[in-house]
Amino acid sequence: ELLREGVGLNRLRDPWGKPYIFEFGINNAYFTVNVKSAGPDGRFEIDSRHAGDDFIVWRAMIDSFQDTRAKLDDAISKYFRAASRVSGNENELAQALSQVGIDWASVRDPWGHRCYATFRSEARYIDQVTIQSYARYNETPKQKTEITSIPEQVNYIFVRSAGADGKEGTEDDFNLTTLSRIAAESAGKSAAAKVLQRASTVSGATGAITGSVADSNDAVIANTKIIATNKASSISFETQSRDDGRYSLINLPAGLYEVQFHATGFSRTVFTDVPVFSSNITLLNATLSVGAVSEMVTVAAGGAPIVETSQSQISRIAELPLNGRNSLAKLGAGVVTKPGGISTPRLREYFPETLVWQPSIETDAQGRAQLKFKLADNITTWKVGVVASTIDGEIGLAEKELRAFQPFFIEHDPPRVLTEGDEIMLPVVLRNYLDKSQAVDLEIKPEKWFALLGPSRKRSEIAPGDSTRELFGFRAIAPMVDGRQRITATGEESDSIEKPISVHPDGQEMIDSASQVFNDSGTLELTIPATAITNTTRAELKIYPNLMAHIFEGVEAIMQRPYGCAEQTISSTYPSLMVLRYHGRRAEDFPAIAERARRYLQAGYERLLNYRNENGGFSYWGRGDADLALTGYALRFLNDARELIAIDEDVIQETREWLIKQQRQDGSWPAHSWSVGEDKTRTLSLTSFIARVLASATKTGGDKT
């Protein structure tokens, strides 16, 4: 390529007159080209770990998967439109790709290895905003905003590479692309779920704009040219509407866009300030008016996680129905109506991340059980999951959604932490899902830890099916831990919400400690500097009966339920093992701690078995080749745990045998790095570790190795 431009590689020189070297490599999905200079000494270092004065002059990264990614995205979109669902396993994925002439077995990563796929489904809760420009005949057009809260079900397909080693399930695996579809959504004004015809969801720093183009009679307009221009970079993206009037602009960098619609015989329509968010879709439906080419209609869009925009001339505004999902929990209990139509709101202040966790519940003979719990104050959709088993071991799973909602509410989302002296303008959103306007008095309750920068009360009016935003400015003036901030809206329908905010002093935290061994009495001296901020000094005194009590306190603090991959499962379970080992026969003195530790240890053992291969080794995620270091770590854990809980001796024996089979003739166990092959330094460490684990583990029958 350079020779065609009249540039010869051999003639290129660095500032010291030395030739460059060109390095070609692979970095995840990218082919890389590095142009390096040897620096002032003119010598290239052989060992890459000691770069010396070598440096990279120029680097290029070429996305090797770009064309394949686009083909896969198009194939999944076509399959979804035909089948109204996303592939749920590799067989279905291969079938979907074959329909557009793509052989899944031939899809390769940059190293030429076959790709593999993983699948996931998740629910999320979003606000859908519809912005309409409307008017009666001969009137000036006005803008109406309608907000509908909807839960969405998103299905993901992760096309993955096995990395440089070509082995699935190892640490160098990575995603080549993420394909997804919003499979279904349920809106508050529609009890039934509907399947969405949308473009593939994109991940990373890009989003998408999708929608449809129609005329004023709802007839679709094909071959409309749509141009989206990023307002910050001025980069334009172009597409055309299909025969069904739909279009998609995918992989758009996040930001604000100007979107133009050009169709022969229709006025040019322009939407300004159309937001595109990372990993989200903006719905933009356009209704074009018949007119000359020179005519232009401009509509301004407002920002929201998903924006559905349409422009048309309509004669009336449809009412916003209030019927919601069948499983609907109303949060309006406790509202007292006073004469004159003003209500006193119930304070919402309980906002947990997890509403209920009930690890065990027993049903009656008909399989029925009742669980009572306090409903949180969140305006959201809770997903309830139940796992049940029969006496003979049959397992059943069920999921149900419980939507907590009220037709008028405040959104108050302050920063969790501030620094003393911070000044912010706090946005408070009022949402009205009623079929009539609401005029409310909005008030922020003064507190000692902040000073208002403006009035504490405001008057606001919210149209039906609309929202509005008010701002309260305040300055944090005093340190506070979980200071309360209350916002109240009072009217015919009212709401009150309170959230915690902590204020840190404007300085650097300094911690000093002193310790002493004493019998009857003792004195501890600490020096507080003169520059310490007033009212920020805190002291804590702990007295331990012995040194082990101090150590045990730290171990107990890190006890937690096992989680994550195989290595994380072992590491998160070991503190529980250490607690039980320390207590030994004195566990009855600490029944609550000992029971929790034993429960976590049993859960960790059972979870670890899910990552065990048939050959006796352990892999990080339960698929792919077993890992030497991880298997050694697992054997050590199993050997330690057998003293405290029941462990299958066959598992220990098969793990030992697998490790012994991996030993080379020189007695070592090799440690490989995906970038440099075998690492001899790591091989020495791994060999020492496995040898020690095998030496400490007992064979079935009680003999030592």
Q: In short, what is this structure?
A:
The protein is an alpha+beta fold and 705 residues long.
Q: How many strands, what sense, and barrel or not for the largest sheet?
A: 9 strands, mixed
Tell me the fraction of residues in β-strands, as a range: 25-35%
| General form | globular
Number of helices: 8
Would you give an account of this structure?
By secondary structure, the chain is of the alpha+beta class. Helix content is 17%, strand content 34%. The protein is built from eight helices and 34 strands. Strands 4, 5, 6, 7, 8, 11, 14, 15 and 17 form a nine-stranded mixed sheet that branches. Strand 22 (380-389) and strand 23 form a beta hairpin. It starts with 20 loop residues before the first strand and ends in a 9-residue tail after the last helix. The relative contact order is 0.06.
